[in-house]
Design a protein that fits this description.
Two copies of one chain form a homodimer.
Chain A (H helix, E strand, L loop, with lengths): L2 E4 L3 E7 L2 E8 L1 H9 L5 E7 L5 H9 L3 E7 L5 E7 L6 E7 L12 H4 L3 E4 L4 H10 L5 E5 L2 H6 L1 H8 L4 E5 H8 L4 H10 L4 E5 L5 E5 L2 E5 L13 H16 L4 H18 L6 H5 L2 H15 L11
Parallel strand pairs in A: 1-4, 1-8, 2-6, 4-5, 8-9, 9-10, 10-11
Antiparallel strand pairs in A: 2-3, 6-7, 11-12, 12-13
Helix pairs in contact in A: 1-9, 4-6, 7-8, 9-10, 10-12
């Protein structure tokens, strides 16, 4: 039932309307793992530098996240500096230093090769493919990507898409990948490229899910304050994959519930900088917000039949 | 059970990515009535010019929309020319000629004064208030407004808000009216100003409903093609008010269903220019999309309890 995630472990410097945070723990694999760990065992494939702090390593171990395949290399940990607009759906990258991540060549342990659930966080599709190929008989493979790879590594991405169960992208990426401005058309076109399921992340507007069974639309959980949107997408993926791994099987109903749990995890993530909110989160809070979410979106069928 | 709507009856010239339409039938009261008429009797309070075409008058009468209080004045009908961006949530007003609408002084017939449901489409809050004052004992009063009135007629708008059951605005207007960027805070602040219910229209991202019973979030119905978004908000209001009038009573469950029917009507409106799609719509289609919408948003509760 275990999940393997491959992706960045990073230190982030972040500016938002709510404030500034220097060198806070970040990275897609980190957000993903901490969110997923509420539901199922997770192990990380990643790389950190010599500056990776013992307290962060300890935190991951304490949460029983398997970091045996998180390599430590000479040099510094991947660093990203981002600045969000007042409209937090928009952000600029101020600086980006790949550091040890530049030579990242992910290698799975024998245990990881036998995993059932694999999440390929946003790294080059070439590497994502190489990791996917190391897994013997996965039940489900999901991947995230970004505009840079869509524009600059199209053949590698195309090859990857063919073996995916789930692809997660944001709305602009869905448009870019498909060449369709309309999201419904874009979604259908992307399903033709290989993935069985497409999850389009729309930030504060929620998620649009496409599959052979149709569409599922969920709003984001409306929050009174968004402090830092960093990691929302990856903790969404973590909650979603965590729930799927916990269930051990997949149907439309389970998938929809997984998307709601993903939405719940993302909503908590953005309430504070870095992983601060996720790290203090309890099961009771997850359950509370899950139920609040169901209430928020329940349209109480009251259909009125035509007078004809 | 009748609904009275006061607002514009217009001719629109519209440019969208899908094409161009000259002098097509438009206006808030028109869109509203045609949508609402599927559910309940409607009468219009409005004004048109000498150029208002007999075929349009006949169409309204044929649909049993009461136009006895739609005055015909010397001069031309209100004309609006709008141009939509490729992102159809954005539009520019190319030109606007109030024409006979400039001296509009709405007067309700004795029948209309006894109506149960009143919708004050987007006109000056001064006029909206004057109309509301003519209605003897309404069950429910709803109003729409826009940025111009929020900025230029704040005292009149404030006085109106105190007597509203429902206010509909878009997200930018909600922010402007409340002075809060965050929509949840904005929604709560606006409820403090008077309306019992606030419906925030977010275009392709759906509607966020605020009331004392909490929030309700609905996505827009995802469409493969949006031809012309003009009238979406007014036909949303028409479907919503029509359903409420049909029910004759109000609770959270009925309100949510009304919002879904409003969303369904808006989704059809934008599929073609002007009212073309609304005018050929059947009850079977409304019912079909209502059910599709419920399916689209049904999260199939599959809650998994904590392992603790």
């Amino acid at each position: 039932m275990g999940i393997v995630v491959v992706g960045s472990v990073a230190y982030d410097t972040v500016d938002t309307a709510s404030g500034h945070r220097d060198n806070a723990l970040g990275g897609a694999a980190t957000y993903f793992s901490i969110a997923a760990r509420f539901f199922a065992p997770v192990s990380i494939v990643g790389v950190v530098g010599e500056d990776f702090q013992p307290e962060h390593e300890r935190m991951l171990v304490d949460r029983r996240i398997d970091i045996r395949a998180m390599e430590r290399h000479p040099g510094k940990t991947f660093h990203w500096h981002g600045r969000y607009h007042e409209d937090m759906n928009k952000r600029d990258t101020v600086s980006l230093a790949l550091n040890v991540f530049e030579g990242f060549n992910p290698t799975l342990t024998p245990d990881q090769q036998r995993c059932d659930y694999l999440f390929l966080a946003n790294i080059s599709p070439e590497l994502q493919y190489r990791v996917a190929s190391q897994v013997t008989a996965p039940k489900l493979v999901a991947a995230d990507t970004m505009d840079f790879w869509i524009q600059n590594a199209r053949p590698q991405l195309t090859r990857l898409l063919e073996r995916l169960d789930i692809l997660t992208v944001n709305d602009e990426e869905a448009r870019m990948l498909s060449g369709e401005h309309n999201l419904v058309k874009a979604g259908r076109a992307i399903l033709q490229m290989g993935p069985k399921i497409l999850l389009v992340k729309r930030g504060e507007y929620g998620v649009l899910q496409f599959s052979k069974d149709g569409m599922f639309a969920v709003p984001a959980y409306p929050l009174e304050e968004v402090v830092d949107p960093t990691g929302a997408g990856d903790s969404f993926a973590g909650g979603m994959m965590g729930f799927l791994a916990r269930q051990g099987r997949l149907n439309e109903s389970i998938l929809r519930t997984a998307v709601v749990y993903g939405t719940v995890m993302a909503s908590y993530t953005v309430e504070n900088f870095s992983m601060d909110r996720l790290l203090e989160l309890t099961w009771e809070e997850i359950d509370y917000r899950y139920r609040a979410f169901i209430e928020l979106t329940d349209s109480h069928s009251n259909r009125w039949n035509s007078p004809s």
